[in-house]
Structure formats: C-alpha cells, structure tokens
Amino acid sequence: MEDKLDDSFDEDDRLVAETVKRSNPFTPHRIKMLAAAASAVAVIAGLCVAVPRVIEFREAKACDVSHGEAMAAVRTLEKNVAAAKTYKVSPTDGPDVRKDIGKLSALASGRLPSVEACPAGGTAALKSAMSANSRTVDKASSISSDMASLVARIDKGRGEKAVSDARLVLEDRMKSASDLVASSKGKTEDDKPRTNLQTALKAAEKAKGSKDASKLKSASENLQNAIDKVNASISARKSREDRERREREEEERKSQEAARQQEEQSAVPVQPQQTPTYTPQYQAPRHSYTPPRRQAPQPSAPQTPTTPANPSQPAPSAPANPGNNGVIM
C-alpha cells in the first residue's frame, strides 16, 4: 500500500515539474543554450569586423615584400647595365661578337622599369601595387638574364678568337724557330742558345693543342726569347769576326805601307852635300862734283901775293853696295 502511494507521489511530482518547466522558458539549460548562441553571434560579429583588417594587414605585408623584391631586381639591373656599357667593339672582334655587342648596347640604353610604392591602406590598392612590382621584377630579371646571355656569348667568342690568334702566332714562331735551328748551326758564339731554342721548340709543340690562350701566349713568349738569344749570339759572333777581320786588314795595311816606304828609301841614291858658291858683283862708284864757292872782294890793303891754289878735287865717294846699295858682301 505504502509502495503504491510513493509511486503515485513520484508520478505527481514529475507531472508538476514538467508543467512548471513548460510554463517557464528560462530554464538553466535554455539559459546556457542562449548564452552560447549569444557568444557565437558576438564572435561572428567580431570576425566580420576583424577579418577584413587581418586580410588588409597581410596584403600590406605582401606588398612590402614585393616592393623589396622589385627594388632588388632594379638594383641588379642597374649594375648589369653599368657592366654592359663597358663592352666596346674591338678591331679583333668577329662579326658575331660585334652583333652581340650591338644588342647589349641596345638593352643597356633602355629605360629601367619603375618600382611601385605600397599605399597606406586599401586591399585593392595594395593588390595593384603588388601586381606592378611583380611585373617590374619579371621585366628587370628578364633584361638582366638577356644581358648575361649576351655577355657570356661575347666573352666566349672573344675567348675563342684569342685562342685562335694565340695558336696562329705560336705556330708561326715555331716555324721560325725550326728554320733558325737549322740555319744557325756553326754561327753562334757557343751552342747553348741553340740547345735552349730546341728545348723551347719542344715545349711549344706540347702547348700548341691547349685551349687556354694564356698558355699559348706563354709558350710563344718563351720561344721568342729563345729565338732572340740565338740571334743575339749570331750577331755577337759576326761583330767579333768583323772586328778581328778589320784588325787583320789594318795590320796588313800597315805592314804593306812600311814595306813600301822601305823600298822607296832603298831605291833613292845618296846625293853628296855641296857648299853653295857666291860670286860678288862689283858696281862702279858714282862721282859727284861740287863747284868751288867764290870769295867776296876784301877791302883794299896791301896784300902779299900768294901762289894760287889748285882747285879742290872732290873726294871720291864710297862704292855703292852691289845688289844692296852697292856694298860688296
């Protein structure tokens, strides 16, 4: 009986609880559900506001990266342009190299691509700047790549030309050296220069097949040095022989001159010495006459008559110097 009453009471309580539950919508469970829904709505609302800002922040970062890449590409291009302008056509360049240098000059003279600055905000503006900078990177990289290819072809062409020219020079000197080895036999001061020339000729023969222009030039220079030493030895011997020949000829000339003078002295007879004679010449002296002076009459006085004197004879003058005023030497 009691068990039935208890069961009846429990059933009533359950019915009352359900009735109360239905009449009160704000049950703890519903409150939790409503709170969770409100939180979800708040989160969604926050996301609606925050997500665009996050996206814009990310776009700004990406724009900064693209701006840096564009600046780096343009700086690299500027360096390549400066290097390209140093390539000038050389008289030794072939037609292909000349053509590539023309293309390189055209690229170097072109306008450099511009770099777009990143705007302060706006997703669309940021994306536009990133696209422009991306095109700048592509264009600058393409120009730099084309320049690098042209420079590589130019350097290769010049290198091949340098090797070809160096090999031709070496082969020409090898021929000259070979001829000199044969023609210089017995004409040098000693045989050492010819031996060194033969050694250099063998080394040049080994280096002839090299594709390194510097090795070919080195072998050619060594061979030329050996050739010069042989020629110098030949010249030294010729100069010495010419000097000795001139000295012999001079000695022979002096000997012949001495013999000729000796023969002339032997052929001339000795003449006796004669005392010079002198015959004096005499010239008759010249006479001069001086008439006597007359005496003036004296006063009359007795005078003793005297014997008249003989007229005075002029004294003979000294004989003249014959040939020298009548003086007889």
From TrEMBL:
Biased composition (Basic and acidic residues): 204-215, 238-263
Keyword vocabulary terms for this entry: Membrane, Transmembrane, Transmembrane helix
Annotated region described as Disordered, given as residue ranges: 204-329
Record's keyword annotation contains Transmembrane: yes
Transmembrane segments: 31-51
Superkingdom assignment: Bacteria
Residue stretches of biased makeup (Low complexity): 264-310
The name this protein goes by in its record: Molecular chaperone
